[in-house]
Structures are given as structure tokens and as C-alpha cells.
Specification:
The protein is mainly beta and about 375 residues long. It has one helix and 30 strands. It has a five-stranded antiparallel sheet, with no helix packed on it. A five-stranded antiparallel sheet has the order 2-11-10-9-8, with no helix packed on it. Strands 3-30-29-28 form a four-stranded antiparallel sheet, with no helix packed on it. It starts with a helix and ends with a strand. The N terminus is likely disordered.
Length: about 375
Amino acid sequence: MKRLKWLLVLIVITLSIPLLHACSFSVQVLTTPLASEPTATQTSVPFTPTAVPPTAILPSATPTLIPIRVDTLYMLEIFKSLDLPESVRSLAFTPDGSALAAAGGDTQDFVIHIWDVASGEEISTLTGHGGIVWNVTFSPDGQILASVSSDGTAKIWDWRSGDLLKTLDFPDQVGSVSFSPDGQTLAVGGLDDLQSLHAAIWIFSTGSWQPLFKIPEYVNITALSYSPNGRWLVGGGASRNVQVWRTSDGTSIFTLNHAHQVLDAAISPDSSTAATATCGITLNDQCTEGSVWLWDLSTGKLINRLADFPDVVESVVFSVDGSSLIATSRDGTLRVYATSNYEPQFEADPPGGNGVTALSPDGGLLATGGANGDVRLWKIVYRP
């Protein structure tokens, strides 16, 4: 029934608009230059965010990496491949970049898989969701992981031990989740009332896991991100609108209008610019050209469109230093732009789809994944 509900939502939206040697793909360096209310259900495991069980399998230390930025893009390469049984819907690195969480599923693999980046070994699996896991994210201190699912729950995990710390229940499925930069609040976005096409973002205190307030939206929340300065929450997308809300009270500051639904949103490290992943042109209800739209967050004005993707853009992320913008589309195109002029600097097209992206907080690792379950890890490889 939940999958049917999800299909109905997609119909509404549409009508309104394993290793490196086995991979064969092209890389193009375009230049070589020198960012109803939910209820909280307590499980039997106490919430102890700083406690690490003595039996936990800890990830290996990762070596110092060269940051991925505009002047190092020409050395960006795949160095490891991992696999999920079904589609990859979300990827997230721990704050120290030592571990990678991947989740998704289609019909049965609703497990959150966690890998040690250095060894490529799976070190933990989090089992408990009964539907597609749409999004995962680590807390800023790296102690806990939050996940949201089509089963209508958000779950809070001690990812090292695999213990479920908390389950938050919602009226329908939830598809996006984000911690505030200070880790004090958690935003969860999803369906509130399918029949009326109402959606919402619920803001929780991470100290008590009680809801603080609720922000109304429409259709579904497919994009959700806090600004690095903590002042704004950017979200929405399935209604073709993306809102910029003030985090202190949920007041809408700007509405960013799009021609089609938005699948992801990212905010530059200086909190000045928002990038939204969308479709630019459709033909017979199919996206024929994906695009990234850039917005000035001080005015809410559109400042640029980056087009010519073969399919809808599913993920965007700024490099840590803000010098580049990484965008991936459903067909498998990975493209990186310089934010100084928004000219493309790097492009690759690994097979099997590439639409989901995550960048490690230190900027040294990039992970991409897609519908075939492949996960690829990228880094800057210096070859003197």
C-alpha cells in the first residue's frame, strides 16, 4: 500500500511536470586548473550518544587525503568499488571520513550498510526499516546516524554497535533528513496527508527527541539541507517549489520556483548560494535535459542555470572550500564546475548510473552510487 502511495505521488509530480579494473568509463578533464504530529517511540536501548561499546568494530584510520577542489580535479580517480544488493538511494560519510553509510533498496534490501573506507570491508549493518530507505545522515559529532524510510519512520542508530536508539513515527513515508550544524536539531521531511497532497518538515530536539515545530509544505519533501551558518533550512522540491525557512521559528524567507520537481539541494560553505538539482526540459513526461539552478540566498534570486545533463540531476554538493560544485545525473554523468564562473572543469560517466553523491566532510573523498547498486569511491591521486 505504501509503495502504491509513493507511485501516486510520483504520478502527480510527473503530470505537473567489483573493482576499478572491471569498470570501463570515460573521464574528461575540461580544463587543468592550478563546495498529524509525529510521535516519538522509545526503544529499550538508552540514548547515549557519546558511548562506544567496547566490542564495537571501529573503522580503520584513513590516510591524509588531498582535498577535492577546483585545482586538483584533474587528478580525481575511482580507487575502490563497493556493492549493494539493490538500488543506492543515499550515501553519507562519517565526519572523519573513515566510514561510509549506504542505503536504499527496491523490494527487499532495506538494510543500511556501513563500510570501512580504508579496507572496503563492511563493518556494520543496521536492520529495522520495512521499506525503502530514502536518506541517511550522520550527526555532526559522528556518534549517531539518522535514517528515513517509506515505512513512515525515522530511526536513530548507534551505528557502531548497530543498536536502534529511537524510532520517530510519522503519518506517511518520510524521504529527507538533516542535522543542524550544531547537532541540536534534526529536520525530517515527508508526507503529512497523501489525499490532500500535504507534506511537512518536522523539527526535533536531539536532546529529548521531542518535536519543536512543524513546517507545512506540499506533495513531498525531496530536498532538505541546513545552511552551514545554521540560519536557514532549505527544503521542498516535489511541489516544484523550494522554500528557504528561518531555523529559529520556521518562517519562510524566500520561495525558489522551479519548472519541475527538485531532487536535491546544497548550500555553499559560506551560506551565500543554494544549488538545486532538477530537470530543465521534458518531452512526453520524460526529462530530456537535466540542470542545476543557482540561487542567491540573500535575495532569493536565480543567478545561473547549469544545463545539458542527459537526464534529471539527482544530487549536488559543494566542495569544502567552495571552489567547485559537483553534480550527478540519473544517467551516470558526473560533472564538476568551478564556482568562480560556473564553467565545467571535469566530467566522467561511469556505467550503471551515478545519481547519488556524498562528499566527506574533510573534502578528500567522493562517493557515487546508482540504480544498479554500485558504489564508487573517488579521491585525488597524485602521480608525479
